[in-house]
Amino acid sequence: MNATLGGAPAPLFKRIALQGGYEALTMVRNGEQLILAIVLPLLALVGLTVTPLLDGLGGSRVDVAVPGILALCAMSTGFTGQGIATGFDRRYGVLRFLSTTPLGRTGLIAGKILAVLAVLALQVLVIGSVAAILGWQPNPAGLLPGLLLLVMGGAAFTALGLLVAGTVRPEATLAITNLLWILLGALGGIVIPAERLPGAAQHLVHFLPSGALGEALRDALVHGAVNAPAVLVLLLWTAVAGVAATRWFKWN
Fold it and tell me: Mind listing the pLDDT tens digit of every residue in the chain (252 residues)?
């Protein structure tokens, strides 16, 4: 989607904003995307709140559950949602077409990132509202770091989603992103803290973007602390996936 002013291309920022708004609306209007982005995280939140799985982790059930659910939202939107959408845009030639318009490849990527952040903001609003009803009381000192961590997590997972979408077939993208969403959601330290995972998984998940984001958000929103090693892991994943996506992304 592009805008023109008097026959000339609109400013780049406006083009990016329009593209980002279009992609965000497309994501929230898609029933499958909506289930992945909102319904499943809400079900997981309620399930963790009414079961004893998170008891004894330094906070109430809902206080410990919400950071992981927010991290799950970042993965759902940035990795699975954007990965699938980009994969099929690539298959049907949408990416190739848009990359030749005044929006350009850089503007297209920026628009996708903006769309992820917009949907993530909606997820935070919905999840936060329901969590508040359930009694969520985040540590005030961790609210700003928590928001910054969500942005970082969204960037990391978007880079990973674009890497998958730009290098394999759309059908494979669909399978890979959905499978990893299930595996990382259940065993990647994103919803269930590392100490509740079996065996070697307790140590491995700290090096995954899912585990790093989940642990960092729990430290911020429950304890008001900044987990520097987890932040470093997130930054490394973002950098590596971003460079790899830039290097190997196929536009057609």
Answer: 445 545 556 787 888 888 889 888 888 888 888 898 999 999 999 999 999 989 988 889 999 999 999 999 999 999 999 998 898 888 888 888 877 777 777 788 888 889 999 999 999 999 999 999 999 999 999 999 999 999 999 999 999 999 999 999 888 999 999 999 999 998 899 999 988 888 777 889 999 999 999 999 999 999 999 999 999 999 999 999 989 988 888 887
Q: CA 193 to CA 218: how far, in whole Å?
A: 9
Give one DSSP letter per residue of 97-151, joined into a string: HHHTSTTHHHHHHHHHHHHHHHHHHHHHHHHHHHHHHTT----GGGHHHHHHHHH
Q: Given phi > 0 = left and psi -120 to 50 = alpha, else beta, which region is 151?
A: alpha
Number of residues in the chain: 252
Distances from the Cα of 149 to the Cα of 17, 55, 92, 145, 209, angstroms: 23, 24, 34, 6, 11
